[in-house]
Amino acid sequence: MLSGLRVISGIAKGRRLKTRKTMNLRPVTDFIKEALFDMLALRVRDTLFLDLFAGSGSIGIEALSRGARQALFIEKDPLTAALIRDNLDVTGFTPQGRIYVGDALQALARLQRDGPGFNLAFIDPPFRKGLVAPTLDMLLRLELMAPDGLIVTRSYIGEQAAAGIAPIKTRTYGDSVLRFFPGRGEQK
Predict the structure, then answer these.
(1) Would residue 161 count as lying in a domain?
(2) E strand or H helix that includes residue 83
(3) Where residue 14 sits, what CATH number does that domain have?
(4) pTM assigned to the model
(5) Is the pLDDT of residue 188 over 50?
């Protein structure tokens, strides 16, 4: 089902994306998406982008629209992952998108053999499930990020993002918090 969800900038600007009505799918609003990509600015171009708990894929697709070289989408729900496939088709980004259907933590463990390389990662698990901190910690521990990489988390305002590492930037939008972390777990 096509929705109000859309690509807001770049070469696929204005393309409508599919979504589905389910309690676990909360697409990022255009307002938050625009604020996020304004903060990432030119950093997106030619990157390898990781979209964890990808949902409809709107964040990774936005990155592709703004010049990311490739995006890997990790989504546990097979029906929701099918939406990502459809949305990549609609926007013309099928060649640049890879989809992993399965648990995010298991996917990260499998990605370790590929070595570091993600320039940007977006972690957006279901709210209030306690998944942000372990996912961020695992991503850092496995050293999957490029040396200059950046990780952004989106969580419920009261959720802990990580133990032992402070964000370099935090922005709050309603009940959502975006936190920015260096990809190697050290302050820059």
Answers:
(1) yes
(2) helix 78-91
(3) 3.40.50.150
(4) 0.92
(5) no
